[in-house]
Amino acid sequence: MIWQDLARQALPREPVALISVLATEGSAPRGPGARMAVTAGAMAGTIGGGRLEHQLVAQARAILAHPVGSWRVQDYPLGPLLGQCCGGRVRVMVERLSDAAWFDAPTLTILREGGVERRALGDRPAMAIPARGPLPAPGFAFAEPQDGPRLPLMLFGAGHVGRAIAGRVEGLPLSLGWYDCRPDYDAPGVVIAPEAELVECAASAGGDHAVLILTHDHGLDYRLVAAALRSRARFVGLIGSATKRSRFLARLRGEGVDASRLTCPIGLPGITGKEPDTIAIAVLAQLLTLPLAASMEQAA
């Protein structure tokens, strides 16, 4: 479970604390934006494990007894004091959450005497949190740090391999959109739509998107591949054999479609197993080799 899910589910019925890495310096287990949601009996997310995480989970559970909106910012050198050899330092905020409305948008955060105020960031400049120096005091405003960029992934196909891939996305720097046209292949997270709408969806892929195509039908696969290659998608992957690849390439050339971005077969070279779980791990590892920073620059 990701930290947002735990927080959203728990907030209506019990206190929830949030641990946020605000800034780091030198070597640290996680960067700014790493978070954990903590309740009396559960936690989700990670700020890197080890003694630091153990100590902060204890502080988060202690703040559950304080009023909603209570917060504290603390610095931790990652040296002998915590038994961690990273050598860097982290600045962390622990708060008792008041709501989950701000989770999915860039946020201007203002520390107040009685709580944490969050507003839509918009185009307003906001100070970043420094990793050392005086701790932020009430009235300090900063841009809520994000936990790194995520690669938008369009996954077409909810069969065995599609489900194996989708089942392993949680916790990875990927943002999944999952599609199929078969009503009986409905599953949590799958968008069921007519074939024509799936093709339109593939054609709309932006320059930051990866597209994976592994449907039940070679004809639909081809239409999706052609649409994705005509889009700005930075990665277009197709499940299939060398024979399928050759046939698709010949047809694409005949239609004047540039197939230089087509990856088929998919998955890291050297992983040859054909079990759905093996394919899923090989494909996700391949996607993780795509440079996320470059992806986000292209999108901008």
Number of domains: 2
CATH superfamily of the largest domain: NAD(P)-binding Rossmann-like Domain
The count of helical stretches stands at 8
Q: What proportion of the residues is helical, as a percent range?
A: 25-40%
Low-confidence stretches: 293-300
CATH fold assignment of the largest domain? Rossmann fold
CATH architecture of the largest domain: 3-Layer(aba) Sandwich
- Our estimate of the beta-strand percent is 15-25%
H/E element sequence: HEEEHEEEEEEHEEHEHEHEHH
What would the average pLDDT be, to the nearest integer? Answer: 88
How are the strands ordered across the major sheet?
11-10-9-12-13-14
Task: Break the fold down into its secondary structure elements and pairings.
Layout: H1 3-10, E1 17-25, E2 35-38, E3 43-45, H2 50-63, E4 71-77, E5 89-96, E6 107-112, E7 115-120, E8 141-143, E9 151-156, H3 160-166, E10 174-180, E11 190-192, H4 195-203, E12 210-213, H5 218-230, E13 235-238, H6 242-254, E14 262-263, H7 276-288, H8 292-299
Parallel strand pairs: 9-10, 9-12, 10-11, 12-13, 13-14
Antiparallel strand pairs: 1-2, 1-5, 2-3, 4-5, 6-7, 6-8
Pfam families: XdhC_C, XdhC_CoxI
Domain XdhC Rossmann: 153-287
Domain XdhC- CoxI: 13-65
